[in-house]
UniProtKB/TrEMBL annotation:
Protein name: Bifunctional apoptosis regulator
Keyword Transferase: yes
Reactions catalysed according to its record: S-ubiquitinyl-[E2 ubiquitin-conjugating enzyme]-L-cysteine + [acceptor protein]-L-lysine = [E2 ubiquitin-conjugating enzyme]-L-cysteine + N(6)-ubiquitinyl-[acceptor protein]-L-lysine
Residue span, RING-type domain: 44-84
Organism whose genome encodes this protein: Xyrichtys novacula (Pearly razorfish)
Molecular function terms, GO-annotated: ubiquitin protein ligase activity; zinc ion binding
Signal peptide residues on this chain, from the entry's feature table: none
SMART domains named among the record's database cross-references: RING, SAM
Gene Ontology CC: one annotated term: nucleus
Taxonomic lineage: Eukaryota, Metazoa, Chordata, Craniata, Vertebrata
Membrane-crossing residue ranges in chain numbering: 148-170, 368-388, 408-434
A Pfam entry, by short name: zf-C3HC4_4
Length: 454
């Protein structure tokens, strides 16, 4: 028994002496001594706590992702909070470091993640930071990939179509051809021009062409015609609806002093600056523009617009001349109710319905306007959706006030600068807004629909 104890002590002494000799000679041991892991080595240099979703920057420093998001949101700088070196690209989570912290400090990490999730400020900052990264990545990597080729081809094709249509209008003179009566005073109308004015009232007016031609009615005689004279020979307009329609249009001519425009090109020729203003204003703010027409151009523009978009209930036996006359009357309460609902919820639908009514007169132009109103409706819906999902709907009154002030200031600036702008420049702006604006809006709609929020 004593011998056995001696041998054990000898073995322990030899083992200790061998380990000491290996240690001092520089030879590594097979099993290194265990060391304690310090929490300081896995702490964030912003919050000085255990790293949660550790994010490594290009300079090598590590931070909690929410700490980095809060720093980015407050400073608006892409630089390291510690050494101020700018990072490249978009910082990503360090997966190896994240797994290490989850294993070593699992309870602490889970507790901190729960606290971060329940903090709305940190959640909004993380969401904004991720949106920034998505937009940055889409700009750099997806600009010419995937659907980009397809939509760029579509935009190119539509641009070619718009150019062809515009060249066709210019070459054929459709754009510049307009009735001279829209700018010539009524008192100076010749008998032929009076007949042309009568023909524009509709097919039913052809019944009374011959009496006007035989009497050689010019502009001055036209202004002196009364209901009694139209009822008696030689005019003999015995149909009450026909007579009232002629008198209603004659009252409009007396009020304006010229013939009212009958289509888009005549309206542009008679109101060059106003047509350009309305074209851009209806795109930017249709509600304010329609309200402007109600206040300052009620009888000549707003009433026909309302009757076209929200027509009264017409009977089957109603004739063409009766419908023409009804467009000059005050709207009933049903028309006002329908108009106000569309005005508040779907203002661009009103413009599309008005363009649809002119489809037979302006074939391609009406289609461009209808497509543009559909695209603008989608863009408006996406903007409202972003406000709702981003919990920023409470900022809507402030945005509406800023928009109102911006539109009013731009309107005054346009009114002041309009007389000094050359007509060629105005025509270019008019046709650009009419034909190329839908093409540009297609690309904007695609960008909105591909955005993660929408």
């Amino acid at each position: 028994m004593l011998d056995q104890m001696d041998w054990d002590l000898l073995d322990e002494g030899l083992g200790a002496s061998v380990e000491e000799s290996l240690y001092f000679s520089g030879v590594p041991k097979s099993k290194p001594p265990t060391t304690d892991i310090s929490e300081h080595e896995f702490s964030c240099h912003c919050c000085y706590d255990i790293l949660v979703s550790p994010t490594t920057l290009t300079c090598g420093h590590n931070f909690c992702r929410h700490c980095l998001a809060l720093w980015w949101e407050s400073s608006h700088k892409n630089e390291c909070p510690e050494c101020r070196e700018k990072w490249e690209g978009f910082p990503k989570v360090n997966i190896l470091l994240r797994d290490a912290t989850d294993k070593l400090f699992g309870d602490v990490v889970r507790q901190r993640r729960a606290e971060i999730k329940n903090d709305p400020k940190i959640t909004r900052s993380l969401l904004a930071f991720q949106r920034y990264g998505d937009n940055l990545g889409r700009t750099k990597t997806n600009q010419h990939k995937g659907a980009g080729f397809f939509f760029s081809g579509v935009l190119t094709a539509l641009s070619c179509v718009a150019v062809v249509v515009l060249v066709y209008h210019w070459s054929s003179g459709v754009v510049e051809q307009h009735d001279p009566l829209i700018s010539k005073p009524v008192s100076r109308w010749t008998p032929e021009e009076v007949l042309s004015w009568l023909e524009h009232l509709g097919p039913w007016a052809q019944l009374y062409r011959e009496p006007f031609q035989q009497e050689n009615v010019n502009g001055r005689l036209l202004l002196m015609l009364s209901e009694e004279e139209l009822l008696n020979p030689p005019y003999s307009i015995e149909n009450q609806a026909h007579r009232r329609a002629v008198l209603a249009e004659l009252d409009r001519v007396k009020t304006l002093g010229v013939k009212p425009p009958q289509n888009l090109w005549e309206y542009k020729a008679a109101n060059a600056g106003k047509s350009l203003f309305l074209l851009y204003a209806l795109k930017r703010s249709p509600r304010l523009t329609i309200f402007y027409l109600y206040l300052f151009d009620y009888s000549e523009t707003f009433l026909p617009f309302l009757h076209t978009c929200c027509p009264a209930i017409a009977h089957i036996e109603q004739s063409v001349e009766s419908s023409f006359l009804s467009s000059q009357l005050e709207p009933n309460w049903r028309q006002w109710a329908e108009f106000l609902v569309k005005y508040l919820l779907l203002p661009y639908q009103l413009i599309a319905e008005f363009a649809w009514d002119w489809l037979a007169t302006h074939y391609w132009t009406s289609r461009f306007i209808i497509v543009n109103t559909m695209l603008l409706s989608v863009l408006e819906g996406c903007a409202l959706w972003r406000l709702w999902t981003g919990a920023a709907i409470r900022t809507l009154p402030r945005k509406m006030w800023n928009h109102l002030w911006k539109m009013i200031s731009q309107g005054f600036a346009f009114a002041l600068l309009w007389p000094f702008i050359p007509q060629f420049v105005c025509n270019c702006l008019f046709y650009w807004a009419l034909y190329f604006s839908p093409i540009i809006n297609i690309d904007l709609v695609v960008q909105q629909l591909m955005h993660p929020e929408t």
